[in-house]
Amino acid sequence: MFDHITLTRPELTVDRVHDGRHALDPANPQDRESIPVLVHLPDEGIAFFVYTWVNHASEAGAVFFLFGPGIGPDPVIVGLPDRTVPRDLDFSDWRIDHFTMRHDLQFGACEIAFANERIKLDLRFDGSHPPYAYSGNAKGCPPYAADDRIEQSGRAVGTLEFDGRHIAFDTTGHRDHSWGVRDWQAFQNYRWFQGQAGPDVSVHFWHLNALGVTRLLGYVFKEGVMAEVTDVEFDLTFGEGFRQKQLTAMLTDDAGRTTTVSAEFYAHAPLIPSPDITLTEGAARAVIDGKPGVGWLEVAMPTAYLEHIRKYPAYRRSVGGDA
What we know:
Blueprint: E1 6-7, E2 31-41, E3 46-55, E4 59-67, E5 76-84, E6 94-96, E7 99-103, E8 109-115, E9 119-127, E10 132-133, E11 148-162, E12 165-181, E13 187-196, E14 202-210, E15 213-222, E16 225-239, E17 243-253, E18 258-274, E19 277-288, E20 291-302, H1 303-309, H2 313-318
Parallel strand pairs: 1-16
Antiparallel strand pairs: 2-3, 2-12, 3-4, 4-5, 6-7, 7-8, 8-9, 9-11, 10-11, 11-12, 13-14, 13-20, 14-15, 15-16, 16-17, 17-18, 18-19, 19-20
């Protein structure tokens, strides 16, 4: 499927068996597995993601999350609460109420459908490069994040119906898939970015602080070569509420290449997976190596810390934000 794509190291990707469901530790309440798929519709002023998960007790749920000026001042969130699912239910035919996800179990195609009285989504995602595996990093996958985790960009084609609007799209998107421990309290803060400039260029970096140290993981895919990020220099400015405003970044990879990214954010929404941490989602129009595209930056901060720094406009100005 991806035989025409070169990897700088074979361990940057994983066996296709990992596109399916994993055995989790029933004795560990933090063991979980999750798959989100993200899509940008900047011309519509909309970004959205669908997200499903299952825990060690085989309790599964899902959420459909739309936000941006094309949606309104508040995100639209449709959650399907946790319920017990069969342990042999696999991602080849994942069903929770009116949400379905069907993976080809090859890290190739994924088909998603969701419908209720207000929203209808039909989406096909086709990966454009091999999945990047965090376990391929020299320091491995961070143990508080997962046993392993993949990131993959691709083509996203489908239709979205929302409050009487019908939007057909043919764009790029992104998915990740993680399995194992997720300990939100271990993170001090992080910046998770993914972006695409068409189907042949994608970048991802996760710059995080945890356990008193800084980690960097990620990849660059362009010119038919997928390489691991070895360094990132970035400048991030914030607007009102410490929401992402602008990002510029230069990435160096282990193929010896540099990649430039700039992003202007058009949509924001908070996501709170645990009371202790707030994830500020930001969708952007982006330029990667001079090519127009899209980008998504998730900034994680402890909730109490974020509430504190929002009280002081001088703090925002001190990191290049507006007055």
